[in-house]
DNA sequence: GTGGATGATTGAAA
DNA sequence: TTTCAATCATCCAC
């Protein structure tokens, strides 16, 4: 069946005839009465609903993340918290990652607000449209104001369900971004060549007691542009790996021994010196004094440094350059 | 893609 | 708390 101009004209004519019918007012009032009675039952079942706790959670999270609500100077509480959580780590590209995080968050924020605006606009347009329709219909059938209100609230509910989905996906996006950002911060970065050199110089010049004091660690950290705990980690790793595979490190030890010896001979101070000399017999440059090439026999056979008070007197018949243990880590 | 190197983390021991 | 030892996760040269 097709709608033609003629059929539309006919329908309009019939509508007009009905509106002008002498029985129309009476019929209309009867319909109003019935409507009022049924409307009551509908209204009673459409009591005001409490605020959805899930929606509240989403709203709170979006606010906390800085997506909803006023912009906090280009940053978010989460970003600030994440930056604080880095524990003062002196990752040189931390700030880059941080600004990257903020720009991504700003993107999410922008998308969220533009979508939200679009939904609100669409909701208003649709509500106006429905209201106009109902007003139009009210000329031919009874449409109580309450019914109009109910229709508006239905529309709003539908749109807020859509908004909730938007909020949900925005929250997901923020969570993904956050986890990526945190992962990125945890990414391992090799220390700079210069930093490794400084640490190695200290390590090999204090081979009989490679345990830098707190002050020495701070000094090394400052020189290398890393944190004290990174220095501790480095020395921890170095000690254990050196001990496990002395042979492998001998060449490196010799290189640093020569380096240090040369700088000593030149009377220079290029070597990373400890601000506080080591407490044990292994004093500053202890094994390198006369440009002597390092001998790995300074370590105890048991692999411990703690007891190696007089390195040169301690020899190991079992451990030495030839004794190779592999780092089981790999 | 692979394997070694290396920084970080974790749990136990001192 | 610090260190050791094992392990994880990532980087990087090949």
Topology:
Elements: H1 5-19, H2 24-45, H3 53-64, H4 77-85, H5 94-137, H6 145-186, H7 193-205, H8 214-224, H9 228-244, H10 246-265
The protein binds a DNA duplex (14 and 14 nucleotides) through helix 9.
Structural notes for this entry:
By secondary structure, the protein is mainly α. Among the domains are: 53-66 and 97-186; 193-264, Homeodomain-like (Arc Repressor Mutant, subunit A, Orthogonal Bundle), CATH 1.10.10.60. Helix content is 62%, strand content 0%. It has 10 helices and no strands. Helix 5 (94-137) packs antiparallel against helix 6. It is rod-shaped. 18% of the residues are buried. The structure holds a DNA duplex (14 and 14 nucleotides). It is found in: Nucleus. One of its GO terms (molecular function) is DNA-binding transcription factor activity, RNA polymerase II-specific. Residues 182-245 form the Homeobox domain. It holds the Pfam family Homeobox_KN. One of its GO terms (cellular component) is nucleus.
